[in-house]
Amino acid sequence: MSILDRLPFARIVFADSEYHSRPGEKVLPICFAAREHWTGHTWRVNMGEFGARAPFPVDKQTLLVSFSIPAEMSVFEACRWPRPARAIDLFAEHRVNINGLSCRDLGLPTDDKKFSLWSARGAMVCHGLDPTSSILKQNLYELTVERGPPYSREELAQILAACERDVADLIKLAERMFPRILAREHGLVHALNRGAGSIGVAASEATGVPIDMERRRRLNTHWDSIMDQLAADADREYGIFDGRDIDQRKFAAFLARHKIAWPRTEKRGALCTDKDTFKDMARGAHHKLLNPLKETLSTLGQMRLNDLQVGSDGRNRAALKPFWAKTGRCQPSSSQYIFGNATWYRGLIKPGPGRAIFYADWRCQEIGIEAVLSQDQAMLEDLATADFYIGFGIRAGRLPKDATKETHEAERGPLKTVALGVGYGMQKKSLAERLAITSPEARELLRLHRTSYPRFWEWNDDVVHYGMLHSKLWTTFGWELNVTGDTKIKTLRNFLMQSNAAEMLRIACYRFVERGGFERGYLLTGPVHDALLVECDIGALEDAKAFTKSVMESASRTVLRGFTLGVDIKSWCYPHRFMDEKRGRPTWNKIMGYLERAEAIEKSTFSIGRRFRNSQGASFLNASV
Q: pTM of the predicted model, to two decimals?
């Protein structure tokens, strides 16, 4: 008897597909192969044969199994097939099994540069199966699929045959993996939840984010000139550049002038100039000085706006890669996805005529997760106030009882830094550097948080001890982290917050789809860390916001045992564009100024050239006469 016979479904369909992917476009399906477990019935669909519906039922009695649900869903979305009601992604289940482990931990070879532990080949090897067909298919992919059409009849036959072999391998892999899935408490439910999340994210990925194509074209045309102006102005303002790169000596002098303590690399002791360090430091006491510099460096590091994957329909589509991060979060390419770039780039997001977009994010999501999981009543009480960080300040005796976000904005900043920082184990040294305060002052802020929320600290310490003792942590819906000797303490402290937040986002994406958001005309265009970006008709804006808020609140209740997180929403109607006023607007205005200057110079040069050519022509005619 097969382990699959224990699954409570009338049909179990194993599927694999191939498609050609063009930057920013919906995929071009090449072939689709599937086999049903109970009957052995096989479906084969080749290019030119894709119909209006999937070749098999996709109701709640049918379980779709794939090694990458987002890949198969991209074909569903391109063909406009109804989305499956139930799915399990063996990639996600493989990631659960090995999350936090390396090839060395698993006793696998580390010298094969083409070997990926997360790939289908990696899963086959981890479960003692022959990965030969996966290797052959990869070679075929590089020779034909990646090249794109047209394909000969023989090539299409080869690609379809490779898909069928992958389906056969998928069934073997499922036989090895399902015993572990079913052995876990609520394992099947959790696997179905992850599959549903992948369906929701895939629907968003296929929709894409609306982009201002004309503004993007103008920026691309003058990009080199804009970057030269940006670097020159930045060097005049900060005095730290050598061309477009940071000069360590000049940067050290800049930091000394402004009395900013800055992190250094462990090996060489050089000043850290990576993206994450600037992102971290720009949130601190010197944010007004450092945030524009962070945006400048992020922009200078972007070679071309062409890296942003935008299709012919003006929508940014990039692989969102759910479950790729250790926390289970999506991990899209930072250069290909609009929300991975410098903040000012988001000004390119613009709805079309008659359309609106809105950004809905959970209020204090990570702190809400901390409060509920730790059952810290004081933290829960402050979370219920108008502003958690002000509530923390009042509780700690740092702010008067009538303080508000508006009256004490300056004092709120350091309190927010502390409240968020303790979630991943921020110590007094890094807190002092971030806030530009002394070590004793940082120690006092941390002490105030510990005394204000003692149950949270007790719970967070218990999480670390449990992970180290049992070599494993897991979330509400079973996303696991294997703990080894290489696992950092701050990873243990932060894992449950980040991973439960990732589950909340995936559940929200799926419920948006399941409850008919797309059928109502609301487009889920992108998940963004702790938020959803949605597009709709201007006339439907209020209904769309209410629907999305309801979906997100219900997702928070599902993950947080009935506790509802609030949702904040910002909207923009055509002709207005998406804009982060604090972090993105200053650089956007600066870049637009550079663009206008470059276009003015081009226009002036063209005008002079035309007058010169006309005068040369007139001189020639006069000489002839």
A: 0.91
